[in-house]
Every structure is written in structure tokens, then in C-alpha cells.
Amino acid sequence: MAEEVRTGGTAVSREAFLEAALALGGTRRKIVAVAGAPGAGKSTLADWLVDAINARQAGSAAVLPMDGYHYDDRVLEARGDRPRKGAPHTFDVDGLAVTLARLAADDGRDVAVPVFDRSIEIARAGARIITPEARLIVAEGNYLLLDEPAWAPLRASFALTAMLDVPEPILRQRLLDRWLGFGLAGDALTTKLEGNDFINMRTVLEKSIEPDMRIM
Fold first, then answer.
1. Between the CA of residue 43 and those of 2, 31, 102, 115, what are the distances in Å?
2. Is 30 within 8 Å of 136 (Cβ atoms)?
3. What residue ranges carry the coiled-coil annotation (predicted)?
């Protein structure tokens, strides 16, 4: 496909990003980051990337979801942050940084990572094991490229970065559909969207650094 150059990032297809990730090469483990606003489809893309890589060599890629680093609801409630769950300050970014450092160390040991269980809205500790055979890690999450002091250190771990480029009207509709699917309606739905999700969406769109690539 023809590539459109944007400020700070080249617009590519998901297939082109896959090839760029595979081309990183080298003997040490590599970590690539896929960021995007809520509703952009990060998890779906990350799973597709890992499946495509593992189809070539089984077990050679793994996903690291940022959502596993949500603070527990008990912590959020104690801090008065439960209504803003999903905002940058409701994640254990330091814990994520430690995990990225462990993966980057590539010391031949398993790394247990947490996974967010949407059925109960809680992160499960040690829910996934990333084995030494995983040579390419796809980290995915809203704020991986956030231009804020707490989040900026994460970027040192990434060999390649991408942002899912989804128009804002589509993001809004997807978020609306998501919560309608969970049975929210009326004031509860409005509060969830206007008081949290749309704010988080604008944070990603307006406060992220430019990626290496934009996935269209």
C-alpha cells in the first residue's frame, strides 16, 4: 500500500506493522507498543499480531496488556477514584515498568503477568506466564505513549511504537455500544461516558507522543 507520512509517524496497515515488528531481528527479546484510545481495538490488534507471529513460529510472541495493572477497586474506592477507573492515575504504572524491565532483561526465566478480567472488572495476578521462548512482546494499552512524567519511562523499553488511528466519532460510538451491551442506560450511561470514558479518550488523543507508526 502507499504510505502516507504524518508528523512523527508513518501511516501503515496492520500487515505492514507486523512486518516492521518482525524485521527488528537480533537475538535479544524485543518489546513493541500498541497504544490507542479506549475503543480503538488495541486488544484485538495485539492478539492478531501475536497469532500471526506464532503461526510462523509457535510460542515466539506474547501479549502484555496494560489493563492488568488496574488498581483494585478497593484501592480506588479508598482514594475516591472509583468513578474514574481507567484514567491514567488509576493504573500501577510503576508495576508495569518493573514487568517491562524484567521482560527486557531476557534472563531466561518465566515472567508472570496480571490480566484484567472484564467479567468482574478486576485484574487477576499471575494470570498469564510469558516464557523465555517469547522473543517478541506486544504491549498494548491506552497510555503507553502518554506524555506525562509517570508514563514516559516506559518508552525506553519499546523497540517500536504504534498508535491505532481511529476517528473520534467511531470511538464514541464504540464506547456507547460497549456500555449499552453491559446494560447501562440513562444517567448511569451518561455519567460513565461523559464523566470518564470520553475524558480518557481525549487524554490519549491529545496527550500522547507521536508513534513510530500509525495503524490505519
1. 26, 16, 22, 12
2. yes
3. none
